[in-house]
Amino acid sequence: MKVLVSGGAGYIGGTVARLLLSRGHDVTVYDNLCHSRRLAVPHQAKFVEGDVADRTLLEKTLREKRFDGIMHFAALIEAGESMVRPEIYFRNNTVASLTLLEAMLATGHDRLVFSSTAACYGEPESTPILEDARLKPTNPYGESKLLVEQMLGWMNAIHGLRYASLRYFNVAGAIAGYGEAHEPESHLIPLILDVALGRREKIKIFGQDYPTHDGTCIRDYIHVEDLAEAHLLALGALEQRSRVIYNIGNGQGFTVREVIESARRVTGRPIQVEECPRRPGDPAVLVASSEKIKAELGWKPKFAELDKIVASAWEWHQKRYA
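Below the sequence we write its predicted structure tokens.
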């Protein structure tokens, strides 16, 4: 297949691009490199440097090579930042995605896999969260993604655009030669590993009074390779289905303190913490039920244990700074 990967120089998009290439697919990465580098693009892929908001360049790219599918990862991803600057999230995540959809329609492309988020659910009424749970985001990041899902629903109903929306939780770990390297970094596991390497003095824990067994937030961690496999399965499913929505996660949650303890076990190094007040917009518990994609597409995570996820990230993190 010929696949366009928007945001393919990022952590998740870059992993998916590499998996596609390893399966013999033709990959074009489309990325503006705002939080990444040219070196993150796999050398076997064609690269187009551009913004998803640039409809002229998008249409030119889509017309030059007829793609069998488009995987859309390009987005701003920081929930905390979205509570300070919501306007840039709606501009970059929602409006730019509409531009991509318009370019697809104009060029006759009708198959999209969308990188959504569990933040669409907000504070869940029950866990693990099912795909038909109430959608009520608690931050503009989640709202910006939910608006795209709503647009996709209408594009499917009116224009027949086939799409898969994958809602996932905290992604972590690394594949051989490629791992998480956001610029700047804000995700928990790489920040903890920076402390283990002596690159940071301590890790901050935001909130100690959540209704959880140790007072810190609970999240569902999914290995990036397992997540990438789910994207490929979803793209294949669009050959027979016009619309699918799946949660992707391990189905079990870990508190911030438990993740820190896992990193201490894996690295064998002390990790100092600093307790800070809650951040606005952070739900207490986010844990996915992935039973639907398991039953319908046969997906199964290979990295279900937190220590294995952290260990793969640790291996990458050490080599990254070697």
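The chain is about 40% helix and 20% strand.
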